[in-house]
Write a structure and sequence with these properties.
The chain is mainly alpha-helical. Helix 3 runs antiparallel to helix 4.
Length: 163
């Protein structure tokens, strides 16, 4: 049952991340292309679900399953998705604010840069802390094998360095 749970958890995380990647461009284009707020509701609902669902799944997982190295690697995708979605929602709010101003803000590029910088910094800190936790558990719980280290390094490369 545990292996099936983890596999389903990984598949759900991938689906949620893919949903975010499809929804983000639509969300960020809404303030410029569509002035009717009722047209924003479906996309905002999807983004809020993309934030709430992984948070709920993480809370339930931590209450039911002990956190070991493998679960830390698996949940990192959920944490990064929550951070990315929150950053996209903040950027959307900034674009909405700018669209209702009489004159466009001269510092809009700076604000977007700051939001992206904060989002990327949170992503990096969260990802590095999860990987550091994985290394810590690997060393402290006598699970120091080459396979564990190899998997953590692969995770670092694909999920942290390439993002």
């Amino acid at each position: 049952v545990g292996a099936i749970f983890i596999i389903l958890f990984i598949v759900a995380g991938t689906l949620i991340q893919s949903s975010f990647e499809v929804t983000k461009p639509v969300l960020l284009a809404l303030p410029a292309t569509n002035r009717k707020l009722r047209n924003h509701v479906p996309v905002l609902s999807v983004i809020l679900i993309i934030i709430a669902l992984p948070a709920y799944m993480l809370a339930e997982t931590f209450s039911e399953v002990s956190s070991n190295m493998w679960m830390l690697v698996v949940i990192s995708n959920y944490v990064v998705t929550i951070v990315q979605s929150t950053g996209a929602l903040c950027t959307y709010a900034l674009f909405m604010w700018d669209s209702i101003q009489k004159e466009p803000s001269q510092h809009m590029d700076d604000y977007v840069y700051y939001i992206k910088g904060i989002t990327k910094s949170f992503e990096l800190v969260m990802s590095l802390s999860i990987v550091a936790g994985g290394y810590y558990e690997c060393i402290m719980n006598d699970e120091f094998t080459m396979m564990n280290i190899w998997i953590l390094n692969i995770h670092c490369y694909f999920n942290i360095y390439q993002r």
